[in-house]
Amino acid sequence: MTKINQNIHRFGEEERQGVYRAIYERRDIRSYFTPTPIEDDVLARLLDAAHHAPSVGMMQPWRFILIRDAGVRQSVYELFQQANEAASSIYEDKQKALYMSLKLAGILETPVNLCVTCDITSQRGRGLGRQTMPETAIYSTVCAIQNLWLAARAEGIGVGWVSIFEPERLGSLLGIPAEMVLVGYLCIGYASQFDAQSELQTRGWEVPSQLPNLIHFDRYGNTDEKRAAELLSALTKTNGFQAPSF
Ligand SMILES: Cc1cc2c(cc1C)N(C[C@H](O)[C@H](O)[C@H](O)COP(=O)(O)O)c1[nH]c(=O)[nH]c(=O)c1N2
């Protein structure tokens, strides 16, 4: 019997660690943007990384609106402020004060904003994989965003995803046709710092959940913290990179 070398397609050690490093050290950046312009070749790499995402039936439904114009960004910022004011109204007392003190967008500070939309009307892929789950078009677009986010981290560029908008108002401001889905609004710029943990954790807004509690064995509901912890105990050994504790 021929013995298959299971490591034959594995990346070299440094490359492999680079992939995990991008994953673990990616952050949602809000406070650390610098105004340094992003060179066209770097921006091209980020967009092309997004364009290499998996997509249902090879639909590639992502459409990008690249926004650099200061006037457009100012109008977007005003929509954010209005939505953020409304969002804060569900919180009270200390929680409201904390919410109001959070920095939740870098629309004006970043040299590039990118609105990522999904053309759910596209016939590309001829419906493969989408007949019972049409929402997979949107999932594909999110995969593109994640690709861009990780590539940006490798380039030293921060990305902040802003979803505090009334989508219809943002859509009409940016001329997005009604049949398209607005998926994400990204603020993109070189970052002066990438923290070891999420800013929301540092600011006391939320704590990360523990992976062992999120693994179900064979059927939903069948969690087994001990078994999951055992499985994950090899984590640092196998990826060769010191993962954060969640
Ligand atoms: C779909 C979606 C939408 C948003 C976000 C993310 C995603 C995936 N995040 C960023 C979010 O707060 C952040 O990812 C978590 O706090 C975890 O932090 P790190 O990304 O690990 O730094 C985010 N952050 C923010 O400041 N304002 C926002 O409107 C949003 N919206």
Primary descriptors:
single chain, 246 residues, alpha+beta, four-stranded antiparallel sheet, 9 helices, 39% helix, binds the ligand Cc1cc2c(cc1C)N(C[C@H](O)[C@H](O)[C@H](O)COP(=O)(O)O)c1[nH]c(=O)[nH]c(=O)c1N2, nucleotide binding
**Which structural class matches the secondary elements?**
alpha+beta
Ligands (ions, cofactors included): ligand FNR
Total beta strands: 4
Strand order of the largest sheet: 1-2-4-3
N-C termini distance? 41 Å
Count of discrete alpha- or pi-helical segments spanning 4 or more residues: 9
Query: How would you sum up the global shape?
Result: globular
Mean pLDDT: 94
Keywords: Flavoprotein, FMN, NAD, NADP, Nucleotide-binding, Oxidoreductase
Protein name: 5,6-dimethylbenzimidazole synthase
EC number: 1.13.11.79
Subunit structure: Homooctamer.
Q: Can you put this structure into words, describing what you see?
A:
The mean pLDDT is 94. 22% of the residues are buried. This protein is of the alpha+beta class and 246 residues long. It starts with 12 loop residues before the first helix and ends in a 7-residue tail after the last helix. The protein has nine helices and four strands; from the N terminus they run H-H-E-H-H-E-H-E-H-E-H-H-H. Ligand FNR binds next to strand 3. The site of the ligand Cc1cc2c(cc1C)N(C[C@H](O)[C@H](O)[C@H](O)COP(=O)(O)O)c1[nH]c(=O)[nH]c(=O)c1N2 has 11 residues, from strand 3. Homooctamer.
